[in-house]
Amino acid sequence: ATPTAIMAAIGNATKHGFLVREGDALERLAKVSKITFDKTGTLTYGTPKVTAVKSVSAYSEDEIYSYAASAEHMSEHPIGKAIVRCYGQKTVACKDFKMSLGEGVTATVNGKVVKAGNLKLMEGVTISKELANAAGKYLNEGSTITYVVIDDVLAGYIVLSDTVREESKDMIAALGKIDVHPVLLTGDNKNAAETIASQLGISEVYANCLPEDKLNYIGKYQDGGYSVCMIGDGINDAPALKKAYVGIAMGGVGSDIAVDAADIALVNDEIKELPHLLSLSKRMMTTIK
Ligand code: ADP
Ligand code: MG
User: In terms of domains, do 116 and 177 share one?
Assistant: First the structure.
């Protein structure tokens, strides 16, 4: 591509909300035939709401909510932030805060060790059949469950529900028209992942992904000859954003770590602009010959 064509394309991309951080990112994007999407914060708004708090112990629902919100107080994850925001009351200071990527958090609150997260964080904790059934009902609706353990006792769980971005479905359809294949890579559970994928018309889905799993799926595609574009917002997406031929970070909801790892930042999170960017990059390469 001539410098003039590249400058013009970068200018156009900027008008559509894309901050091109690497000079050759658009030239690389022109070769992309697969896009791997993160779910939470990327295809969804990433600001879930707490829809239920349930106790399975002697702890009341209020106590469970309060312990969980206190433990999540320093969390940067959309789920942690949602629990704190929806709880809406004063939290108790916590100690020994520890974040486990793709799992949840552990912290000491009122002298008790509190864990809030998914099943991976609950290693060694027994989940009864009744509980699994009750939780399954929520999971089938596409909700996410955060289990709360207090001093090794499974106290209860918090149900959260996120909303798909209004633009996501049309955006995925538009990608199909320019022969770019979408894939969903998410750290969330299989039910939530599949519910959202089928709503959006994405047929290739990988759930329960740790950061290195996202990276490995992208590596496999690239070994198979695909040029992959990854789009995500979280700290957990950073390795995948680096590994992909082109990485795009959500610049609004996204964490700084994701933006730093990416070649392009989508400043206002307007994901509907993605097909335009791909077409633009392809046009840029054809006009130059
Ligand atoms: P995604 O790929 O959908 O953005 P993440 O990898 O960030 O998801 O997180 C994967 C899963 O890890 C979440 O769906 C949630 O179950 C759990 N998780 C991560 N951080 C937290 C947290 N602070 N509190 C509760 N659960 C968490
Ligand atoms: Mg995310």
Answer: no
